[in-house]
Amino acid sequence: MKIDNRKKQQPQYRINEQIREHEVRIVGEDIESTVVPLRQALQLAQDRDVDLVEISPNATPPVCRLIDYSKFLYQQKKKQKELKAKQVKVEVKEIRFGPQTAEADYNFKLKHAQGFLNEGNKVKAYVFFKGRSIVFKEQGEVLLLRFANDLEEIAKVESMPTLEGKRMSIILAPKKAGQPKKSQQKRDEEKAKEAAKAAESAKAEEAVKAAEAAEAEEVAEVAED
């Protein structure tokens, strides 16, 4: 059994003699999962020159793995790093409009928003009302709703247009990959197919019942003869 200065460290898992249960379930390479007395598990670990590491203390009995503890910790840290690397940092990108934004400028900013959303970022679009332009707040709201509608295939509205001071903003979040929004036409087509299948199934069932009835009638006639 490996014994070194690791005992000076506070282990994240109980190992070797720190395990206090009477029996444990052992797992490991080339080992069939089985329940054995703790003393036998410790002896097995010593014979293999590895550690007995308690990986599931809440199980009944606790699950212990026969492995080099240093190697075990390294694998755990590696998994954590991989998970952290997969986590996408979501940023909120801002896009500013005026209440009377020109069409060319609108399309330019729409394209930028598409890029931000495809990268997994949120988009906060806002209309800034300068001076007396606050009288065009309804126009600004229409612009933001149009913006959300033009991006509905890749974004969902997280916050509807809200006026705060001289700024009216809307927040859009990217939709999850692989979950495109179905059009009304597509939904209608699917409903029509389901209805057709149901009607066909009902017709087939009626035909079976009719055949069974005819057969029963024929059997009755033969019996009478």
Description:
It contains five helices and eight strands. It has helices at residues 38-48, 69-86, 103-118, 137-150, 184-224; strands at residues 23-28, 31-37, 51-56, 63-67, 92-97, 122-128, 155-164, 167-174. The strands form two sheets. The chain has a four-stranded mixed β-sheet.
How would the blueprint of this fold be written?
Layout: E1 23-28, E2 31-37, H1 38-48, E3 51-56, E4 63-67, H2 69-86, E5 92-97, H3 103-118, E6 122-128, H4 137-150, E7 155-164, E8 167-174, H5 184-224
Parallel strand pairs: 1-4, 5-6
Antiparallel strand pairs: 1-2, 3-4, 6-8, 7-8
Number of domains: 2
Taken as a percent bin, the fraction of beta residues is: 15-25%
On the 0 to 100 scale, the average pLDDT is: 81
What class, by secondary structure content? Answer: alpha/beta
Spans of 5+ residues with little confidence (pLDDT < 50)?
A: 5-10
Number of strands: 8
User: What is the 3D shape?
Assistant: flat
CATH class annotation of the largest domain = Alpha Beta
Give the end-to-end Cα distance, rounded to a whole number of Å. 91 Å
CATH architectural category of the largest domain: 2-Layer Sandwich
Oligomer: single chain
Strand order of the largest sheet: 2-1-4-3
Order of helices and strands: EEHEEHEHEHEEH
Residue share in helices?
Answer: 40-55%
